[in-house]
Amino acid sequence: MRNFEGAMQFLKARLREDEAATRAVKPGKSQDLERLKARVLADVEAKRQLVAWVEDNFGTALKADADARGLPTFKKGAVHLIAAVPELLRSPVIERLVWAYASHPDYDPAWGLSEYVYEDEPDGDKLRSRTRRSTV
Question: Which residues pair with 114 in a beta bridge?
Fold first, then answer.
């Protein structure tokens, strides 16, 4: 995923917006509305926990330490390269969460260049990756 940090910041802002909009809905007599509000707030919290899981990894700590220690560019680059592996393995989580906001004006189409599609197979659905074509 290109601009991983940008996607993370975008997602966190959308989660704050979702939470604020849900909390702004006035309580009503409808139990369905109250259940929907509770579900949306639980959904926001679950997504925040996934974001925290992606951020809280060995690579993030390595990069922060390399930056704080002021390592020479070569050494810092090596640390960032090594640290990118866990980020690379976890970034599809953020990519999938960001897709829900693809219609938002601040969404960057570069965040969703690959997609997973299900194919019918005799033994169940198989997940495969393909490149998403830009319509712009």
Answer: 131
Say what the pTM is: 0.65
pLDDT in tens, 88-130: 677 788 888 998 898 999 999 888 655 555 555 555 555 454 4
Q: How far apart are CA 83 and CA 62, in angstroms?
A: 6
DSSP 40-76: HHHHHHHHHHHHHHHHSSHHHHHHHHHHHHT--HHHH
Among the listed residues 51, 43, 57, 42, the one whose alpha carbon sits nearest the alpha carbon of residue 8: 51
Q: In this structure, are residues 25 and 58 in contact, taking their beta carbons and an 8 Å threshold?
A: no
pLDDT digits (tens, 9 = 90+) for 67-80: 777 777 877 777 77
- For 11, other C-beta atoms within 10 Å of its C-beta total 22
